[in-house]
Specification:
Elements (H helix, E strand, L loop, with lengths): L2 H20 L6 E8 L4 E9 L2 E4 L6 H17 L9 E7 L4 E6 L21
Antiparallel strand pairs: 1-2, 1-4, 2-3, 4-5
Helix pairs in contact: 1-2
């Protein structure tokens, strides 16, 4: 990963960490999923508190999602594999500030975060 990309990923992780630290909750782990293709982008987020998984409301937290989406769009421009850009990225962050980012270039449904149709709120495998 290039230094510029690595720096952007650190900014992403810090923005995610800062958001959850500002909440009045004792969170353990958080997830942010970003999807993009040439015509649209979307995102979702959830977090674990004890044994519960909670979704972050995209309407209620629209400003944070807007910031995160903008940062992910910048990372997407910096991480092509050949001519292809990732279609999904998943940021996982722990309350101790350890984090991991993963990129998917083919499966646009990978790591979906929802509680519909039996979803748990955790990223799907």
């Amino acid at each position: 990963m290039k230094i510029e990309t690595s720096n952007m990923v650190i900014v992403l992780a810090q923005a995610c960490f800062d958001y959850f630290e500002q909440q009045d909750i004792r969170w353990d782990k958080a997830f942010f999923r970003y999807y993009a293709d040439d015509s649209r982008a979307s995102s979702s987020s959830s977090f674990i508190v004890g044994s519960q998984v909670e979704l972050v409301g995209t309407i209620r937290e629209k400003n944070w999602f807007r910031v995160m989406n903008s940062l992910f769009a910048q990372v997407r421009q910096l991480t092509p594999v050949g001519d292809d850009k990732f279609c999904v990225a998943l940021l996982t962050i722990d309350s101790d500030f350890s984090y991991k980012i993963e990129f998917e270039y083919i499966d646009g449904d990978k790591w979906e975060i929802n509680k519909m149709y039996g979803g748990t709120g955790l990223p799907s495998v």
